Amino acid sequence: MRQRRSKNYRKQMALYTMAFGFRQPYQVLVDGDIIYDATKYKMNLNKSLESVVQGKIKPMITQCCIKSLYDRGKDAEEAVALAKTFERRRCNHLENPLSQSECLANVVNVKGKNKHRYVVATQDSRLRGQFRSIPACPLIYINRSVIIMEPTSTATESAKRHWEEEKLASGLNSVRTRAQI
């Protein structure tokens, strides 16, 4: 990984850790397309994701994403084998499986927030666009056999700014703080 990109990723993950409570092992929610592309490019997905987030990871996959890999047929046997090694995130769509994008949107977007602090690894650009509006949602994708983390979104930046202002204001105007001085 390039040094500049590595430094940017380290700064981004430090922001997510300090401002939004992310911690290691990072929960990386993976979709079937990124697993399929990783096997197509002969990449070690676990090692690559660890180098991007620069820490330990816990790769997770939903039941709907595994179903979509099975639907690809013989093409995706290697991808299915890799997906089986990941921890399963129950999405409760067993009777009526949803598409990968709908399932991931339901799991990650809880009342407009990334409540469970998932790092989302997906190849679906429309879905990544949808997740950019959710604060504290790191996004990872593969571009020509290189794993890339998107820069922090404007929603994340504004949520961080709001958190810092709130923290500063409560520290200066708090009765407890004045009593301790």
Question: Overview of this structure, please?
Answer:
This protein has 181 residues and is of the alpha/beta class. The protein is 52% helix and 15% strand. The chain has 9 helices and 6 strands. It has a 6-stranded mixed sheet. Helix 7 (125-131) links the parallel strand 4 (118-121) and strand 5 (139-143). The longest helix has 20 residues, at 154-173. The chain is globular. Residues 176-181 have low confidence and may be disordered.
Quick structural overview:
By secondary structure, this protein is α/β, with parallel strands linked by helices.
Envelope shape: globular
Helix content: 40-55%
Cα Rg = 18 Å
Sequence stretches where pLDDT stays below 50 over 5 or more residues = 176-181
Instruction: Please provide the ordered H/E string of secondary-structure elements.
Output: HEHHEHHEHEHEEHH
The number of helical elements comes to 9
Mean pLDDT: 89
CA distance, first residue to last residue: 48 Å
